[in-house]
Amino acid sequence: MNTKCLNKYIIIILLFSLIIKRYTSLNRYHNVCKIKNQSCFLNPCTHKNNDKRNSYLYTHYTRNNSSINIRRNNFLDKQNDNISDYIYGLNSVYAVLKKNERTIEEVIVNKNIKLNRKIHKQNYEYIFDELKKRNVSIQYMEKYKMNELVGGFPHNDIIMKTHYRYMNNYKDFIKNIKHLPNKNNIFICLHDVYDNMNIGNVCRSIFFFGGHTIFLKKKKKVNEKKNNVKIDTPILHSSVGSSEFLNFYHINNMVKN
């Protein structure tokens, strides 16, 4: 069999598998919609096994897609009003300790944490050693309470309560531009990019290529002062800690300025 024929069969198989996958997902979606519109599932215990299975499917679907998003949004809304920043996740906590710029209030750890089963054991050891050296208070807590504290965001059994980082005004950058090093002058401007996950992903790339400065046009939140713009917590988490080592500048009109 020649190469062209083989490639043709491979393409056909891939297309067929994609069609099956699409059909399966659509079928599941229709099942969920069907369940959603049926009132008989209000009391699933009184029905047959098939009804129970469908009821479980709908419950599982709504829990995973609605409640988690609501909890996370509520957490982010509370963060806007908080003076303290609740940093969640191993890489985020590790980066904050490495940068050593913020004032750390306390660290919350899962009371049933099993360090011997952790993949990144060395990072955990570094964190606990640093906390001991700096005499930082450690509070041990049940995992479900930790989940509630950060709105269901993945925290890897460790949360840090610390002060926020704030964005600088772009005018400060212009004043100090002469004193910047000649090497690695990579500056990224993100215009109308507001999603924290996307910003965090960009931060990873900037850090990887040796950049150190990012300019953002950020939407002003309720009760937020003009020159007191917080760097949102999810940016640090989605950037895998790299945003902690970048300089953030706030600018309203990139074209004009």
Describe the structure concisely:
This protein is an alpha/beta fold.
Q: In which order are the strands of the major sheet placed? A: 1-4-2-3
- Highest-level CATH class of the domain at 65-73 and 82-163: Alpha Beta
Q: Report the CATH architecture of the domain at 65-73 and 82-163.
A: 2-Layer Sandwich
CATH H-level homologous superfamily name of the domain at 65-73 and 82-163: Ribosomal protein L30/S12
Rg for CA atoms: 24 Å
Please write the string of helix (H) and strand (E) elements.
HHEHEHEHEEHEHEHE
pLDDT averaged residue by residue: 78
Task: Report how far the terminal alpha carbons are from each other.
Answer: 63 Å
Bin the strand percentage: 5-15%
Protein name: RNA 2-O ribose methyltransferase substrate binding domain-containing protein
GO cellular component, one term: mitochondrion
GO molecular function, one term: rRNA (guanine) methyltransferase activity
InterPro entries: Alpha/beta_knot_MTases, MRM1, Ribosomal_eL30-like_sf, SpoU_subst-bd, tRNA_m1G_MTases_N
Strand-helix topology:
Elements: H1 3-36, H2 49-81, E1 84-88, H3 90-99, E2 104-110, H4 121-133, E3 137-141, H5 143-149, E4 158-163, E5 168-169, H6 170-175, E6 187-190, H7 196-208, E7 213-216, H8 233-238, E8 247-250
Parallel strand pairs: 2-3, 5-8, 6-7, 7-8
Antiparallel strand pairs: 1-4, 2-4
Helix pairs in contact: 1-2, 3-4
Domain RNA 2-O ribose methyltransferase substrate binding: 86-167
Pfam families: SpoU_sub_bind
GO molecular function: rRNA (guanine) methyltransferase activity
